[in-house]
Amino acid sequence: MRNRQFTETLLTVENISLSFGGVRALSDISFDILKGEVRAIIGPNGAGKSSMLNCINGFYHPQQGAITYKGVRREQMRPHEAAEQGIARTFQNIALFKGMSTLDNIMTGRNLKMRSGIFAQALRWGPALREEIAHREYVERVIDFLEIQHVRKVPVGQLPYGLQKRVELGRALAAEPELLLLDEPMAGMNIEEKQDMCRFVLEVNEEFGTTICLIEHDMGVVMDISDRVVVLDYGRKIGDGTPEEVKANPEVIAAYLGTAH
Amino acid sequence: MAFFLEVLIGGLLVGVLYSLVALGFVLIFKASGVFNFAQGAMVLMAGLVLVQLLNPTYIGKWHFAGVAALVAGTIGVLALRALKPAAIAAGGGTATRRLPLLVGAGTGVLGGILALSAGGKGWPVWLAVPASAIVMVAIAYAIERIVLRRLVNQEGIILFMATLGITFFIDGFGQTIFGSNVYKLDPKVYFGIPNDPVFLLEGVFQGGILVNNLDIWGGIVAALLVGALALFFQYTRTGRALRAVADDHAAAQSVGIPLNWIWFIVWSVAGIVALVAAMVWGSKLGIQFSITFLALKALPVLILGGFTSVPGAIVGGLVIGAGEKLAEVYLPQLAKNLLGIPMSGGIEYWFAYVLALAFLLFRPQGLFGERIIERV
């Protein structure tokens, strides 16, 4: 529960509808994300939370509606364009490059920042080498920040689940994103791991000013770290506001606890 | 001793042919985690196009003009992309989406007219080879656009089935356009390489070692190709992007790797490797439809060398090429002398597969493949 004020809008979702064949995943969803805030999306399983995130970073193309990001209104965006625009994300079922080491995985996050030509890279001469070293330094900072120095060289396929989640966050951070989308960053973690992850998320938000949009099921965590919360149920938006407002919303309570009909 | 060396060298040079095809498989496997069954069909297609362009007496002049139009159209689209990348990348309005189509069609028609006005004469090698390469790029583009784009985030097996379909399509389409004759690709006429045997090391052994001139050139071409590919794929950002794409499509896209573009590049490179393979194979065997399945000899090569390794494809090809020839010649003798078992030939047909089987049992990742990591 935090009382912070934000004014500048970073992203606006307008009347998004998405269906797969006859299944309506999202109907007419609108909300906004303000620059600098921690915005949570919650809702029961199958509410359309991940679909919403996938629309924002261009994996899904909604049939209706548009998304305005940094003042540019788009009906469709491709995933690599989203990444170029400063949107980074993590996935619900960890999507890492399993054969690569922790270090290499996080280096892929720098992919878009590399500029030198193919031939210079192949021959490792001058500017390409300097560039590689500069990126490597940034990646080492990310690794230090997430406290995963000890597994730098380990192939991520061998790491325990909690650490894999951390590496995935590291890869997203390496891109120096403006908007960070986290899909259940704390799912399946024990209390200690959750506390660590909360700390990282808050530090990223406060120290780098990164705007964060996260999906999470642990209500304690959500209410503690988010500034505002969107609640989805069966693809509809049923609540939007500060954690207090959402907690008091009868529709939200009904969705989570069920009502006597 | 001279005979042994002769068999060994002969085998190694056949191995180069296997390596050339295996290379195409490796490139696509690295980039999409898919075993591309269509590589053999691409070798066939590249060979057919090249042979037709070199010698249009094989086909009518309208076919010839058609190929020329395709080449010109592809150059047009690629040039547009190079000159105005911003317009393509924006891709929002229908106007920008139609632009490449219009440019492609325009330059295509122009190319066709030019080819017709040339009277349908055969092109010289320096023109026909790059033109065939461009046809392969066009095919790669079509495959990405029509088939692969719809299969992002699907299982490897689904992509594999798709490449199976592509194989039979290309095979049948090739027959529809070019007919099913065996076309001769005479290396002496087109590349100035005499297809005669030469004798090496005549000072050391009596009578020297008999080697085919063409095979030596094949080896040199393969070596150059591998050098270039190794530089390109092992040490560049593209190389890292490739490994990423092969591992996880969604994750690769989320860090800003343009999946479709990478696939297009890789299929183009595989197409050009197919062209080189077609030139070498075609010079030896002629361009014929059996190439599609002959190319499956690359499978044991890949198992031996590792599916993800460019050097592995080369070493695997050489080991199998040399191994099967040596086995063919010496195994019956050995069996007879040591075990007293009579054995006749035909060994080179199964030797590669038995070797591959042994590798699957004892070293499934191959000689140079990435370790298969399994969390226990």
Question: Strand portion of chain B, in percent?
Answer: under 5%
Determine the CATH superfamily of the largest domain in chain A.
Answer: P-loop containing nucleotide triphosphate hydrolases
User: How many alpha or pi helices of chain B?
Assistant: 16
Gap from first CA to last CA of chain A: 32 Å
CA distance, first residue to last residue of chain B: 51 Å
The helical percent of chain B reads over 70%
Overall structural class of chain B, as computed from helix and strand content, comes to: mainly alpha
Please compute the radius of gyration of chain A using only Cα atoms: 19 Å
How do the strands line up in the largest sheet of chain A?
6-7-8-3-9-10
Strand order of the largest sheet of chain B: 1-2
- Overall pLDDT metric of chain A: 86
At the fold tier of CATH, the topology name of the largest domain in chain A is Rossmann fold
What CATH calls the topology of the largest domain in chain B is ABC transporter involved in vitamin B12 uptake, BtuC
Integer count of domains of chain A: 2
The tally of structural domains of chain B comes to 2
- SS elements, strand count of chain B: 2
| Percent range of helical residues of chain A | 25-40%
Largest sheet of chain B: 2 strands, antiparallel
What is the helix tally of chain A? 10
Q: Helices, strands, pairings?
A:
The complex is a heterodimer of chains A (261) and B (376).
Chain A: E1 9-20, E2 23-34, E3 38-42, H1 49-56, E4 64-69, E5 72-74, H2 79-84, E6 87-89, H3 102-108, H4 118-123, H5 126-145, H6 161-174, E7 179-183, H7 191-207, E8 211-215, H8 219-225, E9 228-233, E10 236-241, H9 243-248, H10 250-257
Parallel strand pairs in A: 3-8, 3-9, 6-7, 7-8
Antiparallel strand pairs in A: 1-2, 1-4, 4-5, 9-10
Helix pairs in contact in A: 3-6, 5-6
Chain B: H1 2-32, H2 39-54, H3 61-83, H4 85-90, H5 94-117, H6 125-146, H7 156-178, H8 187-190, E1 197-200, E2 209-212, H9 213-234, H10 237-247, H11 249-254, H12 259-285, H13 291-294, H14 298-305, H15 310-339, H16 347-362
Antiparallel strand pairs in B: 1-2
Helix pairs in contact in B: 1-9, 1-10, 1-12, 1-14, 1-15, 2-6, 2-7, 2-12, 3-5, 3-6, 6-12, 9-12, 14-15, 14-16, 15-16
